[in-house]
Amino acid sequence: MENSFEEFRTYLPKYLSLEGQTNLFKELKQFPENIDDRMFTSRLINTRTIFQGDALADVWVSNLPDPTIKKARVLVLSNTCDVAPENRRLLGPRLLYCPIIQFGKYKEMIQSQTGVEMEDHLAEIKRQRHSGMFYLPASPGLGYEAIALLDRVNNCDLQTLPLDELLANRLFTLSDYGFYLFLFKLSVHLTRLREGVARS
Questions:
Q1: pLDDT grade, residue 12 (50/70/90)?
Q2: What is the tally of structural domains in the chain?
C-alpha cells in the first residue's frame, strides 16, 4: 500500500514550506528511478557557506596506512552549522569529508581485481543500495558519474582551508531531494539501532 503525503509528512524536514515538503515527497515517491540531476541545486551557488553534502575540489585526503597525502574532490560530511564561520569553537572547527571517485574508475578497478564485470554490484550502487557509498550522477560541476566513499572519512582544520577559493570552486550543492537521500545514506552507514548486539 502506497503511503500518502500526510502519512509521510512526519519524516520530512520541518523547515520546508508546505510546497517544499510536497515537492520533496513527489521526488521521493519516484526513487530510485530519478537519481539524476534533480539531486543538485544552483539556488545556493553564491552563498558564502559550506553546506553538508557539498562537493569541494582540492582538499587534502589521506588513505592510511599509505602515508601519501594529496588533494582530491570530496563530499562534506560536517553539519552545516558546525562549520559556519560565525559559529565559534574553543578548539576551532574541523571539516569532515570523504573522497569522491569517478564511477568509471571504480568500475575499472573492480574488473581488474576480480576479472568480472560485476554489473549487478554496479547497478546496486547506482540505486543507492550500497550502504558505504553515495552514488552521484553526473553534474555540470563534477563532470562525470561518481561515488562518495562514506567509509573513508578525513578531516582538516577548517581555519587552514582557503574558504573563498573552496566556495568559488564548489562542484555542487545538493537539492532538498539530494540532501534527504544523502542524510538517509549517511545515517544508515553510521548508525544502526538494530545491530543485533546485546551490549549489557
A1: confident
A2: 1
